[in-house]
Amino acid sequence: MHGSAAPLDTGPESVDAKFRALAEPRRREILRLVAGGERAAGEIAAEFEVSRTAVSQHLTVLRESGLVSERREGTRRLYRARREAVRELQAALDGIWADALDRAKSLVEES
What we know:
This protein has 111 residues and is of the alpha+beta class. The protein has a single domain (12-110), classed as Winged helix-like DNA-binding domain superfamily/Winged helix DNA-binding domain (Arc Repressor Mutant, subunit A, Orthogonal Bundle), CATH 1.10.10. Helix content is 61%, strand content 13%. The protein has helices spanning 12-21, 25-35, 41-45, 52-65, 83-110; strands at residues 39-40, 68-73, 76-81. A three-stranded antiparallel β-sheet has the order 1-3-2. α1 runs antiparallel to α4 (52-65) and α2 crosses α4 (52-65). The longest helix has 28 residues, at 83-110. The protein is elongated. Residues 1-8 have low confidence and may be disordered.
């Protein structure tokens, strides 16, 4: 398979980059669009009331953070969500919740 995808890095900087990428609402919506399968850049851009250049910039941020992969087919650029990167985010969120629940449990037990 050819295409460009950031190598999967599970370090804290990688998770931070993914969360920063998703801080922008349009990027979250783009990720939702490509989570169901590969979509062409033009097809993605057609879903938004902003310029194709703006959508292209959002796709670049998502690709550089490792959340989406890009594949070229002729002149088309096709994007899809990287499931392993999304799972990495889910694991980070699960860890946050687990820590919070452990702290809450400790507080209750101390009372």
